[in-house]
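Everyone, study these two lines:
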Amino acid sequence: MSDSFTEEAHASQAAIDDVRWLQPRGSNQMGMSQFNERVVLQAVRLHGSMPKADLARLTNLSTQTISLIINRLLEEGLVSKRAPVRGKVGQPSVPIMLNPDGAFSIGIKIGRRSLDVLLVDFVGNTRERLSLSYPFPVPDTVFAQIASALNSMAVLLGPKLLPRLCGVGIAAPLGLGGWQNLLEMAPEQANAWDSIDIGQRVQAMTALPVEFAKDTAAACVAELVLGRGRSIKSFLYVFVDIFIGGGLVINSHLHGGLHGNAGAVGSLPLGMATAGARNPPGQLLGDASLFNLEQLFILAGLDPTAAHDGRALQEPFATHTTAWLDDAARAIALSINSATCLLDLEGVIIDGSFDRGLLDRLLDEVERALECYSWEGVARPQVLGGTVGSDARAIGGAFLPLYAHFAPDRDLFLK
C-alpha cells in the first residue's frame, strides 16, 4: 500500500485486560493460569525461542504446567513451533517462538512535522506504514488522516486477522503547541492543541482500546522492549528530533515521574542562573535539536529536510552539520554528566529521527565531549546508539496495547 490515507472500512471491536510487564516468573498455584500464560509469553519475547524445559527453568514453573500453557497458546495461535533441534542425547527439543500473526496493534506518532501510523505484529515487526508530512500539525487534518488510516489498516488485515487487532497506541508531545516563538508559529496555531485530549479524539474513532504516551517516552519503550533495554537495566534515553527529548528507565521499568516528565532532557539548563539576569540560562533543547540544524541549512540557502537524511553528511551540508555536532555533543555531554551524578546510570542510549551515519558521528562527538568532565566520585556510563531509529515513537506506541493485553505486570509503562 502507498503512504496515503485513502481506503475506508469498519474496524472491529476488541477488549483488553489492564495487565502489564514483569520479569518472567510464574506460580503453580490454582487460579493463576492466565497470569502464567502471560509470564511464558513475556519470557519468549525477552529471551527468544526456547524449548519447554528451558521455559520451565526460566519461569520457575513445573514442566507439566509449561506443557499445558504451551498447548493452550498453540491453540490460540499466539506461539508456534520451530524445527526440532537434534544432535543431543534423548528426544530432539522443539523451540517455542511467538507467532507474528498472533496479535496486532496500531501505533500512531503525532509529531511537529509529520504523522506516522504503523501496523505492528506480535513480535514487533512493522507490517504497514502510512505517513503524512506537514509544516505544522493542524488538528482537523491530523485527526481526519488518523481516522482514514485506522480504516485502511482494518482493510489490510482482512476478516481473518482483524479480530487479532488488540488496540491503538498514541505517541505525541505533551505540548504540541509549545515553544511557539522558537518555531515561529502563529498563536492561534499553537493554541489549537491546548484544549484537545488526543486520546479521547482517537478513542471516538474506534471501539478498540486506546493508550497514550509522551512521544519520547514511547520511543524509550521501543528501545526497552526491542533494543538495548533487554540488557541494560537503568539508562537515560535521549531522542534527537525537531526538539530533543528523552525517557528514563530504572530497573527495567519506564519511570514517568509525578507529571510524566521524567527524562525530559530537553529542558535541562546549560548554565547557571545569574541573579538579576533578564533571561534564564538556555536549555539543551536550544542547542541539540534538529531544529537548530535545519536553521543552519536555511540560513545557507539549503534544503532543511536534509537534516533528517544522509545528505546532512555530504557537502554543501556537511560543513554546517559539523558545526551543529560540536554544539549538540557538548550540550548532551553536560546533560549526561549531570544526570549521572544524580541517578548513577548504567548507560545512556542516544537515538533520533536522522540518518544512522549522523548518529554515529554524534556518538563519537559526545564521547569526546565527555572527556572534558571530571568523573571523580561517580562512574562514567557507557554511551550507546539506539537500535530502533525514527520509528521508535510509533513502535513504542503500538507496544502499549500489546503489553496491556499480553504481559503479566501492571507496571511497565507509567501513565
